[in-house]
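Quarterly update from the structural biology core.
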Amino acid sequence: MSQSQESLPDDKISTPHEFIPARYFGESNLEASRIIKISPFKRIVLLTHHRAYAADFSQYQWLFRHGTPDFWYEKPSNPEYTLKGMALQPLASAMTDFAPSSTRNDPYPTALEMPRVWASGALTTPLDDDIYDCTAGHSRDGDFMGACHQCTDEKSGAIESTDLVYYLVISTSHSMERAYNGGSATAPSHGRQIYKLISCGSREAAVIEAFCAAGYGWNVIFSCVMRLGETLGEHEGKVERVDSLWKLAEMKSGGEIRVFY
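Predicted structure, tokenized:
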């Protein structure tokens, strides 16, 4: 471990649940960022919790539309390549323009010295999140400012019975080196940026994937949730952001793809 790492705060996390716990709507805001150590991997990680916006989602639409989960990709340099709906090739077969012939068959994801993990609302919002914006008049007290228990029960029951897909966007640099440490190359992180899409069926599974990715030394740079069957793919219609996870359980009237992030 480098001297700079030894001087960092000794805030240790040993489980995925400690790493990214669930956060209910009425709870106080999480710290904007913190530097922690993931004990099982002996990895120093920058963990952030800031809000995601439409501009963040738009950066990775090319991967959601054309990528296959669990393959490494490079972002296409020509935006028209994505807009024309041309499917990207996995990195393992698309690196011939810069990779030496001895490394063309497999990508070598670099283990970053301090990876960053963005734990936005998609990774922290539980299915039974508290509902505060009751419009059904369930409370007789007009000044009541707490959570509506009836709305919470109704909405959480609906979302729990809805099949969801949790997505993570992982990034790191491609290394030309063959030296590995814990499954990742240890060369300096100045190579081409590469990206991987990971899909999970639950928040808990996505948190585990984020924990392991950080342990390997990779960034978690975006996360979102969609309904199973409403994934982007070659979909050319409208993409609608929903501001609450439970709204993914509602019936829709149009052909839009709904995303929570």
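The CA atoms of residues 213 and 219 lie 7 Å apart.
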